């Protein structure tokens, strides 16, 4: 096994690029990760963000190793990569912070209204269900077959062995009772 510790950065980069040499990559990683982590932590103020940035940069280098052709030193290259990743991270975090702020500003008032609306909806729904329960049995059955099961008046008449006119009368009675409740709860209804 070669001792890549003695190799210059350019030699290690060439081994990584040409031979997919993981050991050479590990040497470069171990050589520079701590310096880069300190730089990233100083700029971001977060050790967690700094670790993610350095990891991301090294992962990107490994992924694009076949196209890695340096005009300056490896450290200059990787320090620049970290710098750009820091800027991207700060911009992304700022964008998220702005989006969260805008979301909570826009929905803060709505959350209070939504709770009240939900309570009102539930109350109205319960009141409508109570009204349906108070309908005569045949009327209630006709209403449920129509509204909950989607049966037509003709299908209901056939199923219950009653005339279509009787089905219409039961529906009229049920809807009249429900309109009265809705009119009390929602005046414009």
From TrEMBL:
<dbReference type="InterPro" id="IPR013249">
    <property type="entry name" value="RNA_pol_sigma70_r4_t2"/>
</dbReference>
<dbReference type="Pfam" id="PF04542">
    <property type="entry name" value="Sigma70_r2"/>
</dbReference>
<dbReference type="InterPro" id="IPR036388">
    <property type="entry name" value="WH-like_DNA-bd_sf"/>
</dbReference>
<feature type="domain" description="RNA polymerase sigma-70 region 2">
    <location>
        <begin position="28"/>
        <end position="94"/>
    </location>
</feature>
<keyword id="KW-0804">Transcription</keyword>
<keyword id="KW-0805">Transcription regulation</keyword>
<dbReference type="InterPro" id="IPR014284">
    <property type="entry name" value="RNA_pol_sigma-70_dom"/>
</dbReference>
<protein>
    <submittedName>
        <fullName>RNA polymerase sigma-70 factor</fullName>
    </submittedName>
</protein>
<dbReference type="InterPro" id="IPR000792">
    <property type="entry name" value="Tscrpt_reg_LuxR_C"/>
</dbReference>
<comment type="similarity">
    <text>Belongs to the sigma-70 factor family. ECF subfamily.</text>
</comment>
<feature type="domain" description="RNA polymerase sigma factor 70 region 4 type 2">
    <location>
        <begin position="125"/>
        <end position="178"/>
    </location>
</feature>
<dbReference type="InterPro" id="IPR013324">
    <property type="entry name" value="RNA_pol_sigma_r3/r4-like"/>
</dbReference>
<dbReference type="InterPro" id="IPR007627">
    <property type="entry name" value="RNA_pol_sigma70_r2"/>
</dbReference>
<dbReference type="InterPro" id="IPR013325">
    <property type="entry name" value="RNA_pol_sigma_r2"/>
</dbReference>
<keyword id="KW-0731">Sigma factor</keyword>
<dbReference type="InterPro" id="IPR039425">
    <property type="entry name" value="RNA_pol_sigma-70-like"/>
</dbReference>
<dbReference type="InterPro" id="IPR014327">
    <property type="entry name" value="RNA_pol_sigma70_bacteroid"/>
</dbReference>
<dbReference type="Pfam" id="PF08281">
    <property type="entry name" value="Sigma70_r4_2"/>
</dbReference>
């Amino acid at each position: 096994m070669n001792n890549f510790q003695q190799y210059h950065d350019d030699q290690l980069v060439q081994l990584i690029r040409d031979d997919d040499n993981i050991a050479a990559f590990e040497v470069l990683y171990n050589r520079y990760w701590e310096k880069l982590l300190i730089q990233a932590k100083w700029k971001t103020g977060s050790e967690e963000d700094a670790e993610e940035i350095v990891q991301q940069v090294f992962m990107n280098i490994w992924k694009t190793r076949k196209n890695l052709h340096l005009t300056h030193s490896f450290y200059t290259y990787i320090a620049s990569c970290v710098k750009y990743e820091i800027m991207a991270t700060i911009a992304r975090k700022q964008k998220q912070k702005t989006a969260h702020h805008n979301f909570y500003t826009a929905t803060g008032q709505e959350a209070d209204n939504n709770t009240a609306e939900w309570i009102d909806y539930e109350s109205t729904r319960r009141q409508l269900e109570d009204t349906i329960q108070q309908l005569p049995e045949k009327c209630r059955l006709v209403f449920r077959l129509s509204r909950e099961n989607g049966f037509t008046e003709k299908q209901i008449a056939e199923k219950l062995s009653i005339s279509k006119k009787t089905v219409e009368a039961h529906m009229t009675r049920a809807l009249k009772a429900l309109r009265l409740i809705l009119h009390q709860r929602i005046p414009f209804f």
